[in-house]
Amino acid sequence: MADYAFIFDLNGTMIDDMEYHAKAWSDILNIDLDAALTLDQVRAEMYGKNVELLDRVFGKNYFSPEKEQQISIEKERRYQEAFRPHLSLIKGLDQFLKKTEASRISMAVGTAAIPINIDFVLDGLNIRHYFKAIVSADDVIKSKPDPETFTKCAELLHVRPENCVVFEDAPKGVEAAENAGMSCVVITTMHPQEEFKNYKNIISFIEDYTSADPQTFAKTISQKTK
Fold first, then answer.
1. pLDDT per residue as tens digits for the range 106-116
2. Superfamily of 5-16+88-225 according to CATH
3. Would you say the C-alpha torsion 67, 83, 48, 58 has a positive or negative sign?
């Protein structure tokens, strides 16, 4: 099935770490920067690039680019320090990646994470070899829900968008996949199914990868594109 590709978001999709991101952001925004946001308000802003989040909370150009970079790196330092003892793949994903590779389905990572966090996960879990392409926050002009992250993955894999399945955990990521013309499998680590009711590109909901079958997902999009 070399004509198909799976594109994985990273945080919340391959590792169950979103609460650690939320805690790191909450500390940065409220303790360091006096934003006075509830934890739910922080969670609602957690999509796209770090600098985009800061723009949404404080307004565009509130911080200098140098200060935004400093805040971003410090937030990731705190997140990694807290999550490192818990770093592991979501249940069943290790076998799912092996089965996907054996099925000759190309794989990519398409994420709003910055490279240091991608390295933290892929190298920390020794799974980089599965992925033929990686698109990070640094590789796109606009992040999710803009489709650029996923369309760049498809271009790098030389696979048509309609032949791609995106694995996502967040509504904005599913929206980005829909905008890219791609089908989506949603893993409900952070958001319940009802939060995705407005999206028409979802082919499956899963709690983890234990029962997920790569060939089933590939056949589903094959039937959709006939």
1. 999 999 999 99
2. HAD superfamily/HAD-like (3.40.50.1000)
3. negative
